[in-house]
Amino acid sequence: ADKILLKTPIAFGSHLPALGTPIVWVSEQLNLVSDGKIKMKIYEPGKLVSPPEILDAVSSGKVNSGYATAGYWQGKMPAAALFSAVPFGPEAGEYMAWMYYGNGLKLYQEMYDNGGYNVKVIPCAIISPETSGWFKKPIEKPEDLQGLNMRFFGLGASVMEKLGVSTSQLPGGEIFGALEKGAIDASEFSQPAIDQRLGFHKIVKYNYFPGWHQQATIFELLVNKDAWGKMSKGQQATVENTCKASMTNAIAEGEAMQFPVMAKAKEQGVEIRYWNETMLKTFEQKWDEVASEKSAADPFFKKVWDDLSTFREGYDLWESNAFLPRSR
Amino acid sequence: MDANEIMVIAMFLSFIALLFTGIPVAWVLGGIGIIFAFIGQFSDTYFDTITGLDYTTLGLVVNRLWKIMDNWILVALPMFIFMGIMLDKSGVAEKLMHSMQELFGRVRGGLAVTVTAIGIILAASTGIIGASVVLLAVMSLPSMTKQGYAMPLALGTIASAGTLGILIPPSIMLVIMADQLGLSVGDLFMGAVFPGLMLGAMYIVYILIYGLVKPEAAPVPVDAKPVDLTIVLNVLKAVLPTVLLIFVVLGSIFGGFATPTEASGVGALGATLLAIYNRKFNFTVLKEVMGGTLNTTAYIFAIFIGATCFALVLRELGGDELIESFLTGLPFGPYGIIFFILGVIFLLGFFLDWIEITLIILPLLAPVISALGLEINGYGVVDNPQLVWFVMLVAMTLQTSFLTPPVGFALFYLKGVCPPNVKLTDIYKGVIPFIALQLVALLILVFWPQLVLWLPANAYG
Amino acid sequence: MTENDTLPSVPLADKIDRFIQRIGMSVAWCYVLLVLVIILQVVLRKGFSSGLIIFEELQWHLYAVGVMFGLSYAQTTNSHIRVDLFYTHFRARTKHIIEIIGILTLVLPFIAIVFMHSIDFFVDSYRINESSDSPSGLPFRWIIKGVIPVSFALLGLAVLSRLYRDTVLLLRGE
Ligand code: NA
Ligand code: NA
User: Fold this and answer.
1) Is residue C122 part of a domain?
2) Burial (Cβ within 10 Å: 0-12, 13-18, ≥19) of residue B226
3) Which helix (H) or strand (E) holds B444?
4) Among chain C residues, CA nearest to A117
5) Which residue ranges run through the membrane (chain B) (predicted)?
6) Does residue B33 contact residue B309 with C-beta atoms inside 8 Å?
7) Selection from A84, A58, A68, A60 nearest residue A6 by Cα
């Protein structure tokens, strides 16, 4: 096609830093880079279609593209969460290494193809670690989690369930109200700069780190395959490379804006805590259980998990030698 | 003007026009959405427009419909309806009427005050307008007629008191508004407490003054007994169970013990227990309540479903941006724009009811209000304070839509149960002063946002 | 208005309406069930805090079933809100004509579009055996998604019954 308009419903409000801002950047850049030949019109969450419906809408061609994160589809395809964020998984550098130079991207597309979804997937943003969550009381030992109601996203939710937490995956806009009314006792959502926008610090004071469940999170641009097929090679490359540039842009933006917000949160009386050894060990041990259970239940999950694990075992030799230890 | 804008305007115009044919509102909305989607497709094919509408795109209606089903906030709605219909059958209101009438027996206009007071209590326990108006009319109109009340005063009192429930929490309208705008139901419920009570108080003051100025319009019954301890005790006994129910439902929401949905379920159970306690409960009653809940919930949600189709096509055509840029471009300044919007809603309220206005118009207005940049004090606690305040202004305005002819639900319900000698014009005449009072209340809210925001801010402290 | 201006009897239409109302009244029990589930959840949350996600999801499942099957029920009781400012003053004949035209041009196209798309929506969900996106949520999400085509088919039936009734009455001259 000569010109193309990508109608793009998004899963996160475009005002949310690092969650929503990257796709706005992509739409501006696409227009510039293509000299106006590719336009992207963004629809805020729920305007045309609500976030959990984006995959269905793109696949059936009701819209020609959409911006979300694969973790939303884990009710449809259990492996999807692995392409979104992996508990105790790779940081951004390693994740991208697997995605672009390992089998990641190939498997990612394969998952949608196997699921019968008529979409082309393009990783289009990545962000650094999230916080591990906001709690009303300090959590010193695994038993402290018992009986909590918590908003939790992706694979980490299954880990929390094993520790006696009931989890639900409320959309961002509903968390504050649920927390305020006591429908949930705790919540994780995203990075400090984003959580601050949602105002959690007004109600709950204990903000835990590190986000073992999401050391890096990938966001995806889904394009309907028929629409993709109608684009020229040049247009396809433009979209793919703009998304790749967006990965750089998103992580840089995310890395730059967390510390001022955390400093301010501290002033407002937020307790910034780091999980103790016991807690981190427990989370990791439960995650290993979850991973093997999910692998046993779903062959494709196993395929992806094994591939990622093999990649990471190899990477370990490099990682353990290449980086300086982090100071705490 | 480009093709999309013409289509947006044509959509609204055909909506208004078809409305008056009497075809159900829900199907007018849905049907117009479908027709304009195909007009858009046709125009894209032959006239080089870019609406992007076609049969495939329309499939989004199903995804949107699914999000209405998969919605934990709206679960409260049928429960509050259940509670309302059950209370209606529970005999609680009759007891209240009987005992309170004696309490206010010797006050000029006492019976009308009683009606308003019971209206407030009914409003705070559930607020199904139809049920409240009918109930109040059936219980009080015969005795008001017998005591020689002026017909307009009697009718206006009943209609206005019965309508309080849409504002005073729990309110299904506020639940829907919270859902549409992503606000906290609890914030809206709390925000509505003072405005609602203020309005009720204004009604009572008006009735008392009216009684003083025109004694013959609000006479004292000849056989009025002096108030003694037994009467007071009787009132307390009659009021207690209902107040308890109100306390449990609203108290648990405000106190943060329960979500509105949980409270609505508890309220439904509570109303059932009250009916059992009053020996009004049996299988037939339960079936009536179930059927009534099914029916009422369905006709409200039918409009939801039709409106979601209408709104989808409107958005695809860029109708949102059009209205937004029109409103923000008005040369009136922030308060001028607010008055303009409220004025339009007031006028729309003559023809549309709150459901359509809440579902179609309100979401279009939210970004406009946010863009006005008004400094409304949320005390650092209330999320999005200017929107909460604005919603309350809209809610107060919509309150009048029940009373404004030609399409005023409260008027219809009232007419339905009035004796045939009562003319519709009597009802119209009766509600005018109450509409005026609502507009005064609205003005107070505009200039005194603390009335709305103080409670939600301080309840969480 | 919600007033039920009962139309004259037309045997076949009456039969269909009664059938739909019977279904509706059976479905209406889901609201009683909903009260019980909410109460159960409140008790569990305050007392034991376990199994909450299932109950939370069960709540909106029940609510959704009530809402969707209520549509056809409310159609047979003629409860869908109309602006009856002029409508009440129309002659019976005019009303029948309006109803017939409205059903053919507005109502049936709307129902048909939703019905056809909802079948794909349901089939997609069934194909991948979709479950809740919460790990401890309810499985078989396609069942509740299947409520859309079924309830809209029923709504379509109720509307066709109304169409038939109005046509017969128009021809009869009532
Ligand atoms: Na109310
Ligand atoms: Na009106």
Assistant:
1) yes
2) exposed
3) helix B424-447
4) C124
5) 6-39, 72-88, 109-141, 153-176, 188-209, 229-250, 257-277, 297-314, 326-351, 357-376, 388-414, 434-455
6) yes
7) A58
pLDDT at residue A67, as a whole number: 97
Note whether B308 and B68 are within 8 A (CB): yes
CA of B405 to the centre of ligand 2 (A): 5
CA distances to B69, B77, B149, B178, C6 from C25, rounded to whole Å, are 20, 19, 43, 30, 19
CA distance B30 to B307: 6
CA distance A82 to C61: 29
State pLDDT tens for residues A264-297.
888 888 999 999 999 999 999 999 999 999 999 9
Q: What is the DSSP letter of B331?
A: T
Domain span holding position B145: 72-296
Closest CA to C38 of C64, C62, C70, C67: C62
Number of domains, chain C: 1
Q: Is residue C1 situated within a structural domain?
A: no
- Decide: A219 and A68 in contact? Cβ < 8 Å: yes
The overall average pLDDT reported for chain B is 85
| Percentages (nearest 5) of helix, strand, coil residues in chain B | 80, 0, 20
Q: Considering the domain boundaries, does residue C3 fall inside one?
A: no
Contact A283, A133 (CB under 8 A): no
Q: Does B133 touch chain C (CB under 8 A)?
A: no
C133 closest CA partner among A115, A75, B438, B368: A75
**Residue B108 C-alpha, separation from nearest chain C C-alpha, in angstroms:** 35
Q: Model confidence over A203-253: pLDDT tens digits?
A: 888 999 999 999 999 999 999 999 999 999 999 999 999 999 999 999 999
Distance CA(B264)–CA(B250), nearest Å, equals 9
Domain count, chain B: 1
Tell me whether residue B22 is in a domain. no
Q: Chains with 3 or more CB pairs closer than 8 angstroms to B?
A: A, C
Q: Residue C131 has what pLDDT? A: 87
Question: Which pLDDT does position B379 carry in this prediction?
Answer: 67
| Ligand with minimal distance to B408 CA | 2
Indicate whether B378 belongs to any domain. no
Q: Identify any residues that bridge with A39 across adjacent strands, giving them in sequence order.
A: A5
The verdict on residue B9 lying in a domain is: no
Asked whether residue B177 is domain-assigned, the answer is: yes
Minimal-distance CA residue of chain C relative to B252: C42
Name the packing angle between helices C52-76 and C141-172 (round to 10°). 10
Give me the percent of chain B exceeding a pLDDT of 70.
96
Interface test with B, best of A40, A55, A181 (most B CBs within 10 A): A181
Amino acid at A327: S
**Looking at chain A, which subunits does it touch, using at least 3 CB pairs closer than 8 Å as the criterion?**
B, C
Q: Are B200 and B120 within 8 A, CB to CB?
A: yes
The residue range of the domain holding C146 is 10-82+90-172
Tell me if C76 is assigned to some domain. Answer: yes
Smallest CA-to-CA distance from B168 within B202, B198, B139 is with B198
